[in-house]
Design goal:
Layout (H helix, E strand, L loop, with lengths): L1 H15 L25 E3 L3 H11 L4 E6 L3 H13 L5 E5 L2 H17 L9 E4 L24 H15 L3 E5 L3 E2 L4 H5 L9 E7 L2 E9 L7 H18 L2 H6 L15 H14 L5 H4 L5 H7 L2 H11 L5 E7 L1 H7 L18 E10 L22 H11 L15 H6 L3 E6 L1 E3 L2 E3 L4 E3 L21 E3 L10 H8 L5 H8 L15 H6 L2 E4 L10 H17 L3 E3 L37 E4 L7 E4 L17 E2 L1 H11 L30 E5 H13 L7 E4 L2 E5 L4 H13 L10 H4 L3
Parallel strand pairs: 1-4, 2-3, 2-5, 3-4, 7-11, 14-15, 16-17, 16-22, 17-20, 21-23
Antiparallel strand pairs: 5-8, 6-15, 7-8, 9-10, 10-11, 12-13, 18-19
Helix pairs in contact: 1-17, 1-20, 3-4, 5-7, 7-9, 7-14, 19-22
Keywords: Signal
Organism: Chlamydomonas reinhardtii (Chlamydomonas smithii)
Protein name: Nucleotide-diphospho-sugar transferase domain-containing protein
């Protein structure tokens, strides 16, 4: 047992030291680098003294990062991405004390094995999941009568509002985000300090809830209202949505006549309320369907004109001038090439945000039918308890939006400034350099750590058009170098379990001990057509099945015509890749990865499904190209050797010299010969995960026989990449 533990520890250390993924702590901003500096918190968050203690033990210079998930294993990688950039001031909210305990223990084990990567203490808290009688809270959030979407939505935004109320600057994020640049460098600059709130845009008029940052806000002002009121409205409608239903039952959307909306839809309405200076429901009212409902309101056209005049017509554009130093760092808003942003004679660049002035909303007792009328019933016990939870914080309260006597106080509240990130303006991207998505920036190489791009988004969200695949966000993070293979090994129970092929395999070591069949570097090249590439991978799959081994699906050569955009096909081959690599068809076809821009590889997304990798029915398993590279680093394999190159001629003869570069020649071998000539090689493997190299393109003459034929046929039915040519044209368009 001790030998096994020592072996596991040694493997984990090897992986930690691998150059393919650097997992050490790198502080982008020394002033806001909190790694190893926070006290950390473990405990409940319900009571005011509990949340105050949690914030006090987590914050760094009054900055907090707030993140909520239901299970620790999904949270661990997200937290790790921030910790490795030096930001440990993350308060993680999980579903229970048990889940927080598992998270804390996982990182204790991780830090013990890898002290050079230690980021210090963690903070993890939870909200109560049983009521005063000990009954389970079915909604997942004590103030909601029934569940609306994911409980973690409301944990996050309830906590975010509490943080702002208590005077903290706060970033609330989803688990698929990362700080790819030095966000604080801009946010704390004179230009950045002009804004109180940034949200990611889902579209030019709607919020995406995956990223928000609030700074220097009035604890009882409009930015606070925007966050507080979103959860407040959800609580009220969970308790009683009868007035919504009375206007039009279509407004409910939930099952069993219940209210349902995503949190970002309600956040969009609270944003509009701050723009209008009064409570409005533009996004909710989008679902009105009945003519009689519109007749009550005064007509759809009249409503739309009026609500737009209060909300979307009030957007404006604010231009900031960034000095040379900041401009050199952030690049600018030119798109897709950030470096092409215009500069003046002193090296400065202008950036423009889609901006809103936020006012403190107040209804002044008026709920005109032209805005839908009154849509909330009198507050019930859950709503009153929710409101009391903020009074209990002991901080000044914002003006009551429903109390006419407080209208003057609301009107006297200082306005605050809001901006959207991620707004497409043709060849410019308003706020995209500050925060954006995979579709617009990530897929072009801006997020790839190993490429050391000159510029990158300061915040990034793995969102939007990720491709038709299983585990699409994990695939992205693996390919851009933000997936911590070392942490994955710690969470999964050892390095042999870090691959899709073996994640759920209790016999992972045995599975990988039979070898991993791979084409040697250079066998797959840009001279191969797509059809020839498909021939090659189908043959590789057959060889793997014949030898009962794992297939290492080969990346396409990134200079191959079939992985390029139309304009990219006109470039001189081999292509010298640069960021942004707009010449690669990364929308669906491939994901690029590698150690540097000189070593870019292109994993074909046709293999990005469980059927091509995990295939739990046992008929075949495969590693993606990025996984195979991680395996080579783990096993310290630097390339093919004669000892582990598969024999394609009868022993004791050796393979003829490999064909010349860019060869399309194919060597045929019979199934029975392949097995008999390589039996001693496969059975004699001394370590798991050993690559078995094919030094040329091959084909199985006459196909596979016996059980192997049945196994490969079964695998093809599960793996779309192996039956690509048989798919309908519309299916092939996705990869």
């Amino acid at each position: 047992m001790r030998q096994h533990i020592s072996f596991l520890a040694a493997l984990l250390v090897t992986l930690a030291q691998a150059g393919y993924l650097d997992t050490a702590i790198h502080c982008r901003n020394q002033e806001y680098c909190s790694a190893g500096k926070i006290e950390g918190y473990f405990g409940p968050l319900d009571k005011p003294e509990q949340i105050q203690e949690a914030f006090r033990k987590t914050h760094w210079k009054k900055e907090l990062i707030i993140f909520a998930e239901s299970a620790y294993h999904r949270a661990a990688h997200a937290i790790d991405r921030y910790r490795r950039e030096g930001y440990a001031h993350v308060l993680t909210i999980l579903s229970s004390a048990d889940e927080c305990g598992r998270l804390i223990q996982a990182f204790k084990m991780y830090d013990h094995r890898h002290p050079h990567e230690r980021a210090g203490n963690l903070s993890c808290g939870w909200y109560r999941n049983t009521d005063d009688s000990g009954n389970h809270i079915e909604s997942g959030f004590e103030y909601m009568k029934f569940q609306i979407g994911a409980a973690a939505w409301w944990w996050k935004y309830f906590t975010a509002a509490r943080a702002v109320a208590l005077g903290y600057n706060m970033m609330a994020i989803d688990q698929d985000t990362m700080m790819t640049g030095d966000f604080y460098r801009f946010a704390k600059s004179p230009a950045g300090r002009e804004y109180n709130m940034w949200f990611q845009a889902e579209d030019p008029n709607a919020i995406n809830a995956g990223f928000v940052y609030v700074q220097n806000a009035n604890p009882a002002g409009p930015s606070f209202y925007l966050l507080y009121e979103a959860t407040h409205r959800a609580v009220r409608w969970s308790e009683d949505a009868s007035l919504l239903s009375a206007l039009d039952p279509a407004l409910l959307l939930g099952e069993k006549g219940r209210f349902y909306r995503q949190e970002q839809t309600i956040l969009t309405d609270t944003l509009f309320s701050c723009m209008a200076g009064r409570p409005v429901h533009r996004a909710i009212m989008y679902e009105v369907r009945r003519d009689d409902a519109w007749a009550k309101i005064g007509g759809k056209e009249a409503y739309q004109k009026y609500i737009d005049s209060l909300t979307i017509d009030r957007w404006w554009y604010k231009t900031l001038t960034l000095d040379r130093e900041l401009a050199d760092y952030v690049g600018g808003e030119a798109w897709p090439d950030m470096a092409a942003s215009a500069r003046d004679g002193e090296g400065r660049t202008n950036v423009t945000f889609r901006t809103a002035t936020l006012y403190q909303p107040h209804a002044n007792g008026q709920y005109p039918m032209l805005l839908g009328g009154r849509l909330f019933s009198d507050p019930g016990p859950l709503t009153r308890a929710f409101r009391q939870s903020f009074r209990d914080l002991g901080v000044p309260q914002m003006p009551d939006q429903d109390d006419p006597s407080q209208a003057a106080a609301a009107n006297a509240t200082k306005p605050e400034l809001f901006a959207f990130t991620n707004i497409d303006f043709g060849d410019h991207f308003r706020g995209g350099w500050l925060e954006s998505t995979w579709l617009f920036y990530g897929r072009y190489g801006y997020w790839n750590k190993a490429m050391s791009p000159r510029h990158t988004n300061l915040m990034s969200h793995v969102h939007a058009h990720l491709g038709a695949s299983d585990e699409s966000k994990v695939h992205v993070l693996q390919h851009i170098g933000w997936h911590n293979w070392h942490l994955a090994a710690s969470l999964a129970g050892g390095p042999a379990h870090i691959f899709f092929a073996t994640q759920q395999d209790e016999h992972a070591l045995m599975t990988l001990s039979r070898g991993v069949v791979a084409y040697a570097p250079g066998v797959i090249h840009y001279g191969l057509s797509r059809s020839q590439y498909l021939d090659a991978v189908e043959a590789l799959g057959q060889v793997a099945v014949a030898l009962n081994a794992v297939a290492a699906w080969p990346p396409a050569d990134c200079s191959s015509d079939w992985v390029l955009t139309e304009s990219g096909r006109n470039l001189t081959k081999p292509i010298r890749h640069t960021v942004p690599w707009v010449h690669l068809n990364t929308r669906h076809m491939v994901q690029a990865f590698g150690q540097s821009v000189d070593q870019v590889k292109c994993d074909w997304t046709g293999f990005f499904t469980y059927g091509c990798t995990r295939n739990n029915n046992g008929h075949g398993r495969g590693l993606l190209g990025v996984e195979f590279d991680a395996l080579l680093e783990l096993k310290n394999v630097h390339g093919p050797d004669a000892e582990h190159t598969l024999r394609l001629v009868a022993p004791p003869g050796s393979n003829p010299a490999p064909p010349p570069a860019l060869s399309t020649a194919v060597t045929g071998v019979r199934h029975s010969d392949l097995v008999s000539w390589n039996a001693d090689l496969v059975l004699g493997l001394s370590r798991w995960g050993q690559p078995l190299w094919l030094d040329r393109l091959v084909s199985i003459e006459g196909g596979l026989g016996g059980r192997a034929a049945a196994a490969y046929t079964a695998w093809r039915t599960q793996c779309r990449g192996l039956r690509y040519r048989e798919l309908a044209a519309n299916e092939r368009d996705d990869f």
